[in-house]
Amino acid sequence: MDELCVVGKSIPRPDAWDKVMGKTRYVDDITLPGMAYAAIYYSSLPHAEIKELNIAKALRVPGVLAILRASDIPGKNFIPMIKEDWTFFAKEKVVYPGEPIALIVAESKDAIMDAWEKISVVYEELPAIFDPEESLKPGAPQINPIGNLLSLHKIRTGDLELGFMESDVIIEGVYETDYQEHAYLETQGALAVPGAEGGMTIYGSMQCPFYVLKGVCMILGLPQHKVRIVQTPTGGAFGGKEDMPSLFAGLAALAAWSIKRPVKLVLDRRADIIMTSKRHPSRSYYRLGAKKDGTLMACEARVYLDPGAYATLTPSVLWRCCIHSCGPYRIPHVKVDAFAGATNKVPCGAYRGFGSPQVIFAMERQMDKLAREIAMDPLKLRAMNALRQGDSTVTGQTLPWSVGLEECIQKAAEASRWEEKRSRYPAEDGYKRRGIGCSFLHYGVGLGAAGSRIDVAEAYVQIKPDGGAVFAVGTTDMGQGMQGVLTQIVAEGLGGIAPQQIQMLPVDTMQVGDSGPTVASRATYTSGNAILDACEKIMDEMKKGAALLLKCEPSQVRAGGGKFFQESAPEIFYTFAQVAAECSARHFGLTHTGYFKSPDTYWDSETGQGKAYVAYSFGVQIAEAEVDMQTGEARVLDIWAAHDLGKVVNPKMAQGQIEGGVVQGVGYSLMEFIALDGKGRIQNPSFSNYIIPTSLDAPLVHSEIVESVYPEGPFGVKGFGETPLMGVAACVANAVSDAIGRDVDKIPMLPERLLEKMKG
User: Fold this and answer.
1) Which residues make Cβ contacts (< 8 Å) with residue 376, sequence separation at least 6?
2) Which segments in the chain show pLDDT lower than 50?
């Protein structure tokens, strides 16, 4: 049957009830016999040689079992990521405040606290640097062992000089974005359990179990068949549990290996904020050229990301940042240079949007300034330059299908009554002023050409004799709802059986092959395709069993609605459970593994040209904002968010993604601010002074979904999880700028900053 039975329906998430009722067991809920605890002793300085590490007094604290350092590592003091620069422990010098120096292992958390106070370090301070531009200048102190330039990417197309010569208007701007803390509800944590035969099992809160597998093998010097990684239910991640769990799981494993007992390492909120990755701060310099009628001609951008002291995931973040730097627009002449220069600050890594929100903010502010300069409606200006099917991106990639941007524009404009509101904004009501702004975005699906080698997935599906099904995948659910949507894909792939008949197994590196990282909005797309590959093999076997019951050829059997029937006589059927029982009795193979490799992509790093991604998701966001002219406080009243996400597996969950992403974007826009002292140390490591939006800060979010199906995705699915956040800062800044009549080119838009902007 061609009609979908399960995909496209708003079915409750399988994990929802246990989470709401408090029954879900996270890693810190697990206690094992003989279990000890661990905590990390970290640096207090940004750049210094370690002259002496004194642990003797700490070792004498009752209950302390061990204090471990770099010299205690049996394997290598190196966390495997993109570049070989990141260590488990600082050995001879520290390069950022919060860098691990030692690991305290004890019978209790109280003993750990006592031992912490008795450790002392003698440092010799070294020159520190806190700005990525300064880091790349000649004579700057060398921070990273591989050099301060941690990554460089570029785009070259057309003739930039000619493009600006043919432009009637040239807009220039400098844009800055700050850190954003992931603020997941569950902090980083791992439980390490040594095996009887010299192996190690890790239970932990994570996004990428196979990254953790490599990290634990590296620190212990073990082969991969001796190490098992099991993802426990994960209470949020947003990218923050992609790279960092390799560090914490590795240290927990070292502790368990050393004392031959289970060891739990769970960070408190203070340590989590001080030690873990953030969204990269950025500074971007833009020039944009256009004709008087609004036709875009040329774009030049120089973008600096602040990666902190180590590369971690920065090369990949910067690559995506570079590719998305000119927005979803047709621009014939482009030059982009994107740099990451090491600083003596906490390393930055993955965060929802992965380098895109920073440049979307810059480019969309440029578009608003251009619209003002040529006296054109900013939505109309964007629409006339927007990518459509058959167009090419600035990286030279032709888009043959699944370009739903035009429909997003139409839906967002109609839902928000853009023309009507634009005609009466900015508006003034006493001391408050209101404005409206918009932003467009696109987002490459999957890992793209930079990560094509690991853009694969594996899935395992098994049918039980009673008609139930279990499945396992290598990607993870960290709260985004992957378990639910993949259950629906399994159900559809097995002929439309009820999702209640299906159970997803915990993600376990011993049960399924490496499926790459759960990032880049790729889990539904890649694991979904791998699942369908396994389901297709199973259905071939089940159709043979059904054919025996129906007394026909397997080629004549059809499936749908959880039933098998002959196409010519659909009124005679056998249920999925009946056919499963028949196949089981005849020992037909109903356990299969499915595989998927993303279609080929290619990239020329010298020109920044190529097929960067297999497909793109698109979005249009419109914000209505209000500014109190006395206090400088900005508030977002409404946001209309129209998103093209391909086929929608679960509309209600998609709506939830939009609403959650928008609120997270509002925090990035207005209030989320990491305060640093003069030595790069975080001064507000708690939720009492790192401010995130509450329900009272959340705007009304109006979701509009566009289904521009991607033919190579499972049932037409594309990636989606990150896009709702990505354009929020841009459209909110445009709305605030519209309200106050001043250009706001830096986020977060704190009241102090807006008051300074509005002086006079």
Assistant:
1) 294
2) 1
Which residue in this structure is represented by tokens 């639910």?
484
- Put simply, whether the predicted model's pTM sits higher than 0.85 gets the answer yes
Rounded to an integer, what is the distance from CA 662 to the centroid of its chain?
15
Burial environment of residue 528 by CB neighbours within 10 A (0 to 12, 13 to 18, 19 or more): buried
Residue 98 in tokens: 């919060």
> What is the DSSP code (8-state) at residue 556?
G
Structure tokens at 577: 């459970």
Q: Which amino acid is it at 35?
A: M
Is 162 strand, coil or helix? helix
- With a CB cutoff of 8 Å and minimum separation 6, the contacts of 530 are 457, 458, 459, 473, 515, 594, 595, 596
How far is residue 432's CA from residue 421's CA, in Å, rounded to a whole number? Answer: 16
Distance, CA of 395 to CA of 363 (rounded, Å): 16
Structure tokens at 125: 């301070």
d(CA 437, CA 454): 39
C-alpha closest to that of 457 among 591, 594, 554, 336:
594
Amino acid making up residue 539:
M
For every residue of 232-291, DSSP letters joined together read: PP----TTTTTSHHHHHHHHHHHHHHHHTS-EEEE--HHHHHHHS--PPPEEEEEEEEE-
Element (H, E) at 524: helix 523-550
343 Cβ partners below 8 Å, 6+ apart? 129, 130, 131, 132, 135, 143, 306, 307, 308, 309, 680
Residue 2's pLDDT is 59
Burial status of residue 302 (CB atoms within 10 A of its CB: 0-12, 13-18, 19 or more): middle
Bridge partners for 341 per DSSP? 149
CA gyration radius, the chain: 27
Chain-wide mean pLDDT for the chain? 97
Q: Which residues contact 1 (CB under 8 A, 6 or more apart)?
A: 496, 558, 559, 560, 561
The alpha carbon dihedral of 41, 44, 50, 54 has a sign of negative
Backbone angles phi, psi at 717, to 5 degrees: -70, 145
Extract the tokens encoding 113. 């606290």
- Interatomic CA distance for residues 516 and 498, integer angstroms: 29
Q: How many residues does the chain have?
A: 760
Q: Which runs of E-coded beta strand occur in 17-148?
A: 36-42, 48-54, 64-68, 93-94, 100-106, 120-125
Phi, psi (rounded to 5 degrees) for 650:
-140, 100
Q: For the stretch 400-418, what's the b/e string if a residue is b when 16 or more beta carbons lie within 10 angstroms of its beta carbon?
A: eebbbbbbbbebbbebbeb
CB 95 within 8 A of CB 325: no
Helix (H, G, I), strand (E, B) or coil at 504: strand
Tell me if residue 212 falls in helix, strand or coil. helix
- The backbone torsions φ and ψ at residue 303, rounded to the nearest 5 degrees and listed phi first, read -120, 135
Report d(CA 488, CA 471) in Å as an integer: 12
Q: Tokens standing for 132? A: 């990525």
**Beta carbons within 8 Å of 165's beta carbon, 6+ residues apart:** none
Backbone angles phi, psi at 487, to 5 degrees: -60, -40
pLDDT in tens, 54-110: 999 999 999 999 999 999 999 999 999 999 999 999 999 999 999 999 999 999 999
Residue 161: alpha-carbon gap to chain centroid: 36
Is the CB of residue 153 less than 8 Å from the CB of residue 314?
no
Beta bridge partners of 504: 471
